Amino acid sequence: MDKALEDVINCIKNSPEYLECIDLKKKMDNNTEITSLVKDIKLLQKKLLRTDSIEIQEELDNKINRLNEIPIYSIYNQKLNVINEKISYVNDELNDYFYNLLNEE
Predict the structure, then answer these.
(1) Ranges 4-8, 38-42, 44-48, 76-80: which has the least confidence
(2) Do 66 and 37 meet the contact criterion of CB atoms below 8 Å apart?
(3) How far apart are CA 37 and CA 33, in angstroms?
(4) Which run of H or of E encompasses 48?
(5) Tens digit of pLDDT for each residue in 17-65?
(6) Percentages of the chain per state (helix, strand, coil), in multiples of 5
(7) Is the pLDDT of residue 3 over 90?
(8) In which region does residue 70 sit, left (phi positive, over 0), alpha (psi from -120 to 50) or beta (all else)?
(9) Measured at the alpha carbon of residue 63, what is the angle toward residues 60 and 68, in degrees to the nearest 5?
(10) How wide is the angle at C-alpha 84 spanned by C-alphas 83 and 86, nearest 5°?
């Protein structure tokens, strides 16, 4: 069982989407515009939780839109979604397997 699980993990980690995601993440970490926007977004999200201000929400939405318009960030999110779908699929299959295994009569 450990070998099979390790194979699944390696399959995901060696997928083109995962490898590209890692590369894009490194590039984003070195991009001052992206890191600045992410930092601003986090701060605005915290402020919004405390104040529930329309102005802060609008500023937050603007920063999120600017971030999503940056091609490297957009591509990263697309690849990350593919990886998350693969992980979700594996999770669902494992849940079904163990449910069926434990609920056999």
Answers:
(1) 4-8
(2) yes
(3) 6
(4) helix 32-51
(5) 899 999 999 999 999 999 999 999 999 999 999 998 999 999 999 999 9
(6) 90, 0, 10
(7) no
(8) beta
(9) 125
(10) 65
The pTM of this model reads 0.77
**Residue with tokens 């605005």, as numbered in its chain:** 44
pLDDT at res. 94? 85
Mean pLDDT, range 55-81, rounded to an integer? 96
- List the structure tokens of 7: 């194979």
At position 91, the amino acid (one-letter code) is N
Phi, psi of 98, deg, nearest 5 = -70, -35
Which pair of tokens denotes residue 28?
């984003």
20 three-state secondary structure = helix
Q: Which two tokens stand for residue 13?
A: 């980690």
Give the chain's end-to-end CA distance (angstroms, integer): 23
Q: What's the residue count for the chain?
A: 105
